[in-house]
UniProtKB/TrEMBL annotation:
Protein name, per record: GOLD domain-containing protein
Domain annotation GOLD: ranges: 29-145
Organism listed in the record: Hyphopichia burtonii NRRL Y-1933
Pfam families: EMP24_GP25L
SMART domains in UniProt: EMP24_GP25L (SM01190)
GO CC annotations on file: membrane
Length: 233
């Protein structure tokens, strides 16, 4: 009896977490069907290798940014409604939590995201140019299916840590805003003081110019009176 139970557990483990690989041409899609119940979490771990035409061997892509896979998850039972469409790197994982029970189709497409127009740029990555021309890829993948609540509970600490970091960043942002407001207030005070100083300078300048003009007019009047008296004498 224990032997049958052990065989059954090994069979379930091989179904839920079996690793395998397949070959695809660039831009072609490979799909897998999974019967997933509501609330179940699907994790797909994959890594891609591309065919090197020089050595005729599969190698890890040199460019880690623009060479990867397109990941699609569709609900077959709901008229092939696509619920996941994301761009993945050459190696990584994707997760999906089923909203409803039914047949789901998981598709992967090896693809180069390198744009041809970038070739004219002086700072383009040569690895992107090399990997963008790959014709065939080998993708290894394994699926892990489990209870979403159990698997998600393992990431509670990470979520709490991220939440604390977000709160710290918000506090720093508030401090920066306060400092900026303090600098603005100081700048406004300095501007008001500068304007008042300029007004005082201009006012005294006008008074001084007026006084000089009055003194000049008075001196001219005195001189004209003096010369008039000299002529009469």
């Amino acid at each position: 009896m224990h032997r049958y139970i052990l065989v059954f557990l090994l069979f379930v483990q091989s179904v839920c977490a079996g690793s395998f690989h397949f070959y695809l041409d660039h831009g072609y899609k490979k799909c897998f069907h999974k019967e997933i119940s509501r609330g179940t979490l699907l994790i797909g771990r994959y890594w891609m290798e591309i065919l090197d035409p020089d050595t005729n061997a599969y190698i890890i892509p040199r460019d880690k940014t623009d060479t990867g896979v397109l990941i699609d998850v569709e609900e077959v039972f709901d008229s092939n409604h696509r619920v996941v469409h994301q761009r993945g790197t050459a190696s990584g994982q994707f997760t999906f939590s089923a909203i409803d029970s039914g047949d789901h189709r998981i598709c992967l497409t090896p693809k180069s995201f390198f744009k041809k127009k970038w070739l004219d740029g002086g700072g383009s990555n040569p690895n992107s140019q090399l990997d963008s021309k790959f014709k065939n890829a080998r993708i290894s993948i394994d699926f892990i299916i489990g209870d979403g609540s159990i698997i998600d509970s393992k990431h509670t600490h990470s979520v709490q840590t991220l939440s604390e970091k977000i709160h710290q960043l918000n506090d720093k942002l508030i401090d920066i805003r306060r400092e900026q407001q303090f600098i603005r207030d100081k700048e406004e005070q300095f501007r008001d003081l500068s304007e008042r100083t300029c007004e005082h300078v201009v006012r005294w300048l006008v008074v001084q110019v007026g006084a000089i003009l009055l003194a000049c007019i008075y001196q001219m009047f005195k001189l004209s009176t003096f010369f008039l008296k000299q002529k009469i004498a």
